[in-house]
């Protein structure tokens, strides 16, 4: 169904009831689960599931990270769209204790990204940035259960960022989730520059 009738399917494929399939995997992690930025409707795109890690996809990520977390320097989650680099936290308006360091590394990486093709990405916590861009439409200012917040709080990975890639906004005739073919390679090039910047900043 998802492959033939909904090209932009974003959920997992587990059966929830007779009509609805899947949960939003980026709301299925065990961090303030089901509190904000979610829907209780199993058919909704932001349905978090019945309980944390109910999905094999998220459970596998959890298990692997817990296995290797002592060696992990950073956790990066890639999404679209809005041209942002989101710092912790997404589930609360409270900022991380090391917010200043997150912003330093994030701004450096986005400066490196901008130098490649001139694209400007905003940097900051999700509630600060997204409440004015996406979630204001549906009344959300935070989203709980994200993988990046879980990685920082529960797995203890210091540097966690969420990319919201090109474009900055949806076009008149196209969804922001469908990137123009001509932008795919430039997007990869600029992101690679940002990744190199992050690596240089955090690996000492």
How many domains make up the coordinates? 1
What is the correct CATH architecture? 3-Layer(aba) Sandwich
**What are the secondary-structure elements, in order, as H or E?**
HHEEHEHHEH
- Please provide the count of β strands: 4
Strand content: 5-15%
Describe the structure.
It comes from Tegillarca granosa (Malaysian cockle). This is Peptidase M14 domain-containing protein. Residues 1-202 form the Peptidase M14 domain. With 204 residues, this protein is an alpha/beta fold. It has one domain: Zn peptidases (Aminopeptidase, 3-Layer(aba) Sandwich), CATH 3.40.630.10. Helices cover 33% and strands 11% of the residues. It is built from six helices and four strands, in the order H-H-E-E-H-E-H-H-E-H. It has helices at residues 2-5, 56-68, 99-117, 126-130, 147-153, 184-202; strands at residues 74-80, 84-87, 122-125, 159-165. It has a four-stranded mixed β-sheet, with helices on both faces. Strand 2, helix 3 (99-117) and strand 3 (122-125) form a beta-alpha-beta unit. The longest helix has 19 residues, at 99-117. It starts with a helix and ends with a helix.
């Amino acid at each position: 169904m998802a492959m033939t009738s909904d090209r932009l399917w974003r959920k997992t494929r587990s059966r929830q009831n007779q009509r609805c399939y899947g949960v939003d995997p980026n709301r299925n992690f065990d961090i303030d689960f089901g509190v904000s930025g979610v829907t209780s409707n199993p058919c909704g795109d932001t349905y978090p599931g019945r309980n944390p890690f109910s999905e094999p996809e998220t459970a596998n990520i959890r298990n692997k990270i817990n296995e290797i977390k002592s060696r992990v320097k950073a956790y990066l989650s890639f999404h679209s769209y809005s041209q942002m680099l989101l710092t912790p936290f997404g589930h609360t308006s409270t900022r991380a204790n090391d917010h200043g360091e997150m912003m330093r590394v994030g701004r450096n990486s986005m400066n490196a990204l901008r130098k490649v093709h001139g694209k400007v990405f905003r940097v900051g916590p999700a509630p600060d940035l997204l409440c004015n861009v996406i979630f204001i439409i549906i009344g959300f200012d935070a989203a709980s259960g994200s993988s990046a917040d879980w990685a920082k709080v529960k797995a203890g990975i210091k540097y966690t960022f969420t990319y919201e890639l090109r474009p900055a906004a949806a076009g008149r005739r196209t969804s922001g989730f469908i990137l123009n073919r001509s932008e795919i390679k430039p997007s990869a090039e600029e992101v690679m520059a940002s990744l190199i910047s992050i690596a240089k900043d955090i690996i000492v």
